[in-house]
Design brief:
The complex is a heterodimer of chains A (about 300) and B (about 260).
Chain A: H1 3-8, E1 16-20, H2 23-30, E2 41-43, H3 54-65, E3 68-71, H4 85-98, E4 103-106, E5 109-112, E6 115-121, H5 127-144, E7 148-151, H6 164-177, E8 180-184, H7 185-195, H8 199-204, E9 211-216, E10 220-221, E11 230-231, H9 240-253, E12 257-260, H10 269-299
Parallel strand pairs in A: 1-2, 1-12, 2-3, 3-4, 4-7, 7-8, 8-9, 9-12
Antiparallel strand pairs in A: 5-6, 10-11
Helix pairs in contact in A: 2-3, 5-6, 9-10
Chain B: H1 2-15, H2 19-25, H3 27-33, H4 38-42, H5 48-70, H6 72-78, H7 80-93, H8 104-117, H9 126-140, E1 160-162, E2 167-171, E3 189-195, E4 202-206, H10 209-219, H11 224-235, H12 241-256, E5 260-263
Antiparallel strand pairs in B: 1-5, 2-3, 3-4
Classes of the chains: A alpha/beta (about 300), B mainly alpha (about 260).
Bound molecules: fe (ii) ion.
Fe (ii) ion (FE2) binds near residues 151, 184, 215 and 261 of chain A.
Chain lengths: ~300, ~260
């Protein structure tokens, strides 16, 4: 089954601008503070698997009222270590209850030599590397019995000779693994700014038919004085340049789930909901342009 | 293969203790030393050394921040520079293993325990304090807990069934009375911790020596009567009516709290 057919065979996929379900406001959401305001929540199963207490209990209640998307950080899809069997079976068991339409993780390595580094570390953009990662993505997808999406990361040290090598690498993984792309347009913007390339030239290389979900986020300078490197901290509101990339994609793809990521300096829920509404206006306007284009094409 | 060597070298720059100096001195040689072919290393950008240092800082600061968040009082006593060195050493020698970020403080303490216990420059109570601070998250997030009760009443010839989160912790210091700055009194302390099955909050009970002795035996699976007898023998106290009444009250309290579920 192709990745598209795999996704279509699952329960209805939410669209619109959702939020990450963070522990700082999980209790509020559980009490209904965001009911009717968010089309879905994205969670990281790494924070729930093999864990008891209030979190899983609250998540179970939230999942009764909202669609849940699953996005992890710890599979180390590009790592050299063997895949973690216990973790994969933990994830599979967790998904049996939650039934998210897919699982996603990053095109990176995060563990090495048995050491879990808890960060998204960059991979070399070579065909050999793409082949190895794609085989692991396929294996994960089979073992989780679920379609997989891979996410493009922010990188601060390119391990290839041209920035466009990264897009080619991403495409090669997508095709060899026959998986979907969780396209993080903030990461595209961060990389384009840090490494000096045109984000639209990068996006033009990506087969948009593979894009299943989007991430948008804010970012910050590593050194406020030097301002020569921005870091994908998910610690600030989304900038207009990132809004523009979101709109560019949605105009071409139509409705998708878009996640507004916020992991640092997390504001009160009400403020985050207001930021969500602002991003949603960008999304809805792009969606309207997409519909208008479809109508024009249909009439022509 | 050069792509695998690149990953190895990158990881080494984050993990190895002497990496910062080696990367700073000659980043291309650092890559070469980890098996990256010279022509591949030569293509690394000018900023490579600086960027590797940034990655290293990001990884280590994230780990350090998590440890400081779970062990706030311990972190104050260690101070930032010492905690930074501890994390560097931890990453180089052991590192987190679990894919679950929240568990890393427990992994760190397992590694730090023997080191701190034999380090005379640290306060003697520090390890006890750290373990006590961590126990809140450990019990609060324990995958066990909330088990169904056997439905059998306590019986003298039977072991008992506790909620899966119940822990008995013994310390040489009254660590639960430590403040941000004040040292805990040097006082043998036994704490019983469990997670409330209704509100999921971690509850801590300070136990008397005899309640602790009985609890330790019950947790080890001894039948109730043997636990009571052996505890009295250990403490050199008579197994009299006063003792039995006190223990009956203690066990009834645990049952009411949902920490003790009945006979196993
Ligand atoms: Fe992202």
């Amino acid at each position: 089954m192709s990745f598209r057919a795999g996704i279509a065979a699952r329960a209805a996929v939410p669209t619109g601008v959702g939020l990450g379900l963070r522990s700082t406001f999980l209790a509020e959401v559980d009490r209904g503070a965001a009911d009717g305001r968010v089309p879905f929540w994205e969670i990281s199963p790494d924070n729930y698997v093999a864990r008891g207490g209030s979190r899983p209990a609250r998540l179970a209640r939230v999942a009764e009222r909202f669609p849940i998307l699953s996005h992890g950080l710890s599979l180390s899809l590009g790592g050299l270590d063997a895949l973690n069997d216990d973790f994969l079976s933990g994830l599979r068991g967790f998904f049996a209850g939650l039934q998210p339409p897919w699982h996603s993780d990053h095109l990176c390595f995060s563990a090495h030599d048995g050491k879990m580094l808890h960060d998204l570390l960059p991979l070399p953009w070579t065909t050999a590397s793409a082949r190895r990662v794609a085989a692991r993505v396929r294996e994960v997808s089979e073992r989780l019995e679920r379609p997989m999406l891979v996410e493009n990361i922010s990188y601060y040290l390119p391990l290839g000779s041209s920035p466009l090598d990264e897009a080619a690498f991403v495409v090669e993984v997508l095709e060899r693994a026959d998986c979907g792309l969780l396209l993080d347009v903030n990461n595209v913007f961060v990389n384009a700014t840090n490494h000096g390339f045109d984000p639209l030239a990068w996006l033009a290389q990506i087969p948009l038919g593979r894009v299943v979900q989007l991430h948008v986020a804010g970012h910050e300078f590593w050194d406020d004085e030097r301002q020569d490197l921005i870091i994908d901290t998910h610690g600030a509101p989304v900038r207009s340049e990132v809004d523009a990339l979101l709109a560019w994609v949605v105009e071409r793809t139509g409705a998708l789930p878009v996640l507004l990521e916020r992991d640092e300096n997390i504001p009160p829920l009400a403020e985050l909901l207001a930021e969500r509404d602002r991003v949603d206006a960008v999304y809805q306007a792009a969606l309207a342009r997409h519909a208008a284009q479809q109508a024009t094409q249909g009439a022509a | 293969m050069s792509e695998e060597a690149l990953i190895r070298a990158f990881a080494a720059s984050v993990i190895e203790l002497d990496a910062p100096a080696a990367v700073q001195a000659d980043v291309r040689q650092f890559f070469a030393r980890h098996g990256v072919p010279p022509e591949v290393a030569a293509r690394l950008p000018e900023t490579a050394a600086e960027r590797l240092a940034i990655y290293r800082t990001m990884v280590h600061s994230r780990l350090r921040a998590a440890v400081a968040e779970f062990l706030p009082k311990t972190a104050i006593r260690l101070g930032r520079p010492r905690l930074r060195r501890e994390i560097e050493q931890f990453v180089a020698e052991a590192a987190p293993k679990a894919p679950y970020f929240w568990r890393l403080t427990g992994e760190f303490l397992e590694w730090a325990g023997p080191r701190w216990a034999s380090d005379a420059t640290l306060p003697g109570y520090l390890l006890d304090l750290a373990r006590h601070e961590w126990s809140d998250a450990e019990v609060g997030n324990d995958p066990a807990g909330g088990e169904a009760a056997s439905g059998k009443p306590l019986a003298l010839d039977q072991p008992v069934q506790f909620d899966g989160t119940v822990r008995l912790r013994r310390y040489a210091w009254a660590v639960h009375r430590a403040t941000e700055t004040e040292a805990p009194p040097a006082e043998a302390t036994a704490l019983l911790l469990y997670r409330d099955r209704n509100d999921h909050q971690v509850k801590t009970l300070e136990l008397t020596p005899r309640a602790a002795a009985v609890t330790a035996r019950l947790l080890a699976g001894e039948p109730l009567q043997a636990a009571l007898t052996d505890a009295c023998a250990e403490l050199g106290t008579p197994l009299d009516d006063e003792f039995l009444a006190a223990m009956a009250g203690y066990l009834a309290d645990l049952a009411e709290r949902g920490a003790l579920l009945g006979a196993a």
